[in-house]
Amino acid sequence: MFSLPRPRSIEENEVYLPSDELWIYDMDSGLWTMHLMEGELPTSMSGSCGASINGKLYIFGGFDDKGYSNRLYYVNLRTKTGTYRWKKITNFKGQPPTPRDKLSCWVYKNRLIYFGGYGCRKHNELSDCFDVHDAFWEGQIFWGWHNDVHVFDTTTQTWSQPTIRGGDPPQPRAAHTCAVLGNKGYIFGGRVLFTIIQIFPGKRLCKEPERARKCHEASPIHLSGRKGHLFPNLELELVKEDDDDGDDDDENQLYQESFENRLRSVMWTQFLQQTRMNDLHCLNLDTWTWSGRINISGEKPRDRSWHTLTPIGDDRLFLFGGLSSDNVPLSDGWIHSIATNGWKQLTHLPKSRPRLCLDCIGKNAALLEKQIPRLPSKLLQEVLKKITFWAAMTHRQERKAETERQSQLLST
Predict the structure, then answer these.
(1) Transit peptide as a keyword (predicted)?
(2) What is the pTM of this model?
(3) Rounded Cα distance, 260 and 222, in Å
(4) Helix count (H) and strand count (E) of the chain?
(5) How far apart are alpha carbons 69 and 59 in whole angstroms?
(6) How far apart are CA 52 and CA 56, in angstroms?
(7) Which residues, given as ranges, of the chain have pLDDT below 70?
(8) Residue 385 backbone phi and psi in degrees, to 5
(9) Spatial distance between the Cα atoms of 342 and 357, rounded to a whole number of angstroms
(10) Is residue 138 part of a domain?
(11) Which residues contact 164 (CB under 8 A, 6 or more apart)?
(12) Range of the domain at 378
């Protein structure tokens, strides 16, 4: 782990959580319980990524006062003694991801599949999967966003990095969210780097601006708008100025040059900004092929980070909350249908908190007959009561309607 607590992809109200406490919510009893942890305790971190598989909770990465981490811990949640003991995984095979936080994880076929995150890399670790945010030139350390994929096989305790066989990956990001439907891993939103370049027509330079020249010489970062380079998400802004020499031919020739040469031959400035996204992507976890940005029909959720994405049924995703581009906490809920490729906002959600409508389930039990048995036992009991109530109510209404119909027949 690098011991340089340098630039971060800052989000609001981040805290370091104590690692000696484990809180467990029992969905059957509806109660929270706190357990003191033992073993090799992780340091207090923010932005760590947790995922549960086969009764074990795995924690990877995070950020503390010493910098970013790429350590991996796990705790067995199915202990029979009531003692929960952390264990740091050190006897792994392969190469783990570089240190980072605010990444996401898909659980698929006994594997933890990690994507993205914000962190740091050494000069010799720079690649197309990394958008540079800032750098410490003397130490040759770079900070920025990732869009690489790493796999940890929990059976063999082996790290690997799959070869992506096609498709356009999402822009490097952090504080996004992910979910698995079938063999597809979905990504939505998150925080990214956004670059604006101002070009001053007619203002030629003998050499590149100093900062860009250093970047170009010190690393494989090129002056282009491609993902994973100095200008990942690019917007050009032409600044109009009077041309004293009146050399229109020279200016025309300037704009006929390639984009990269143009940047090297004109006066320009750059502004790096962070923003949040509302794009949806998916990765085939068998073929390692990216979908590219999924074109959504109709309305869609606004930009956000720190939200949740939960699979419901076999072909739908539930999106809730997050932090908007204006740093406003969100409480809206959306359903994405894979079949229709569209988002639909849930208008029944209260503004303060989400709510499960038992009456709605009771009235539509026939439509939800496959999902209802999957509910936790305590919630299932409440649902069955509502189903019984509405079944009886429907039966009474049908008997009343039949009685009225018979009365009308007799009267005629």
Answers:
(1) no
(2) 0.69
(3) 8
(4) 5, 21
(5) 11
(6) 5
(7) 1-19, 28-30, 138, 195-272, 348-356
(8) -60, -45
(9) 23
(10) yes
(11) 149, 288, 289, 290
(12) 361-411
